[in-house]
Amino acid sequence: MTDPIADYLTRVRNAIMAKHKVVEIPASNLKKEMTKILFDKGYILSYKFEEDDKQGIIKIALKYHPISKVSAIKSLKRISKPGLRKYSDVDNLPRVLNGMGIAILSTSRGLMTEKEARNENVGGEVICYVY
User: Fold this and answer.
1) pLDDT digits (tens, 9 = 90+) for 79-104
2) Rounded CA gap, 76 and 129, in Å?
3) Biggest CA pair distance of the chain
4) What is the Cα Rg of the chain in Å?
5) Is the confidence at residue 1, as pLDDT, over 80?
6) CA-to-CA distance for 44 and 23, rounded, in angstroms?
7) Is 88 helix (H, G, I), strand (E, B) or coil?
């Protein structure tokens, strides 16, 4: 697998389109941090990290509106790819849907949203947009 982050986003996107309640994803430290951010910002219902003989599994419970069954996540978009990395300094951090969505950044202080990076006054690699 050449791009595990794109695989993570694609698995979540496909599960949402198929209206699944839970999606299982092979674990890594970066994926665990991305999952924590999605949970903290209210895009997923819950998550659980399970250990197995290999690398572990992340189980994510997806969040839907109770009446209309619309997902909390409308779009997941990979920005920085292995072939073309996208970096942003603190002055040019992206705003997703004029602040309604989030951009996940990999900074020198770990994974964080663009709002947290603005508050910490750091830039970094723009991993993805979520709204």
Assistant:
1) 999 999 999 999 999 999 999 999 99
2) 6
3) 44
4) 15
5) no
6) 11
7) strand
Q: What is the pTM of this model?
A: 0.94
CB under 8 Å, gap of 24 or more: what pairs does 16-24 form?
16/62, 16/71, 16/73, 19/64, 19/69, 20/62, 21/61, 21/62, 22/59, 22/60, 22/61, 22/62, 23/59, 23/60, 23/62, 24/57, 24/58, 24/59, 24/60
CA distance 35 to 49: 10
12-46 pLDDT, tens digit each: 999 999 999 999 999 999 999 999 999 999 999 99
- How far apart are the C-alpha atoms of 33 and 104, rounded to whole Å? 10
Cβ(100)–Cβ(43) below 8 Å: no
Q: Which among 48, 126, 40, 127 is positioned nearest to 87, based on CA atoms? A: 126
Q: Cα–Cα distance between 130 and 106 in angstroms, integer? A: 15
